[in-house]
Amino acid sequence: MIRSDQTWIWHKKLGHVSMRGLEKIIKNKAVVGIPDLNVNGNFFCGGSTHKSWKGCYTNRVLELLHMDLMRPMKTESHGGKRYVLVVVVDYSRYTWVCFLQGKTDTVEICKNLCLKLQREKGKKITRIRSDHGKEFDNEGFNSFCLLEGIQHEFSAPITPQQNGVVERKNRTLQEMACVMIHAKNLPMCFWAEAVNIACHIHNRVTIRTGMTVTLYELWKERKPNVKYFHVFGSTCYILADREYRQKWDARSEQGIFLGYSQNSWAYRVFNNRSGNVIETINVVINDLDSAVKQMNDEEDDTSNMSEARIICVILPPLNLQLLTLLSRMSIG
């Protein structure tokens, strides 16, 4: 594979990251597993970028958490979810996404996530900032904040810019997910899987503004490794090891690569035959399927154009002979 094709594949593996961002990652050696790529800025993709907000007013992790609930999706996800809870640490900008069936699930998920983060870092959350939505401004969540000694701040009504960190993060994740879905022409029911992998990638390849390290390194205190990354939506072949197979049955089933497991070292894939999303390590993923299809389409177009030119060259003389024959017959 030539270096330009390799660069294009890695661009898609990293969630259609901008070439400027990819060049910055390689220059700062912020990520483990990316080969030496030829990033010349000539690539163009349907993804878009926005200017980042450079302000950082915190000095440590868990000093401030930003929370927001995305508006309900019109299409229900494959797992029956409609809402996305986004939580961002102000200092590191490390992000978590949680998927909900309804707004009533928000309080319990927020409580569990806050307790988990405090145990992981051994530090207390100082402040939480959200809007005045009833999913955040309610007796249950306010009692939890009071019990844990957390100051709950609210943005002013109809002023989302006061909680702009998480609002911009919402837009970034949605745009990444949108590009990945449309690049592979996947059904919209996979939007939750696309948002989940977009968050996974974003944490590992985004360099914190004003620093030379990724969001992942600021939170985990080690460089991220992306050797296992694959292109979202690629065709994959799953080892059929969960059902009894006879001697001449196929040993694999075709599926779609959807992301990475959060709790184990495994991939999330959609099995085309069963219609289920499963987690497995016994899978072969073809990241080049779209590239091969594009090359075949281009070859077909070229051959069709050649055939059209041949017909255009051959037909006029045939028409002239036919006219001559018809004229003789009419004269006879």
UniProtKB/TrEMBL annotation:
Cross-referenced Pfam families, in alphabetical order? gag_pre-integrs, rve, SH3_retrovirus
Q: Name one GO molecular function term.
A: nucleic acid binding
Tell me where in this chain the Integrase catalytic domain is found: 57-223
> Can you cite a GO biological process for this protein?
DNA integration
Task: Spell out the PROSITE patterns in the cross-references.
Answer: INTEGRASE
Q: Which domain of life is it from?
A: Eukaryota
Record protein name field: Gag-pol polyprotein
- Provenance organism: Cucumis melo var. makuwa
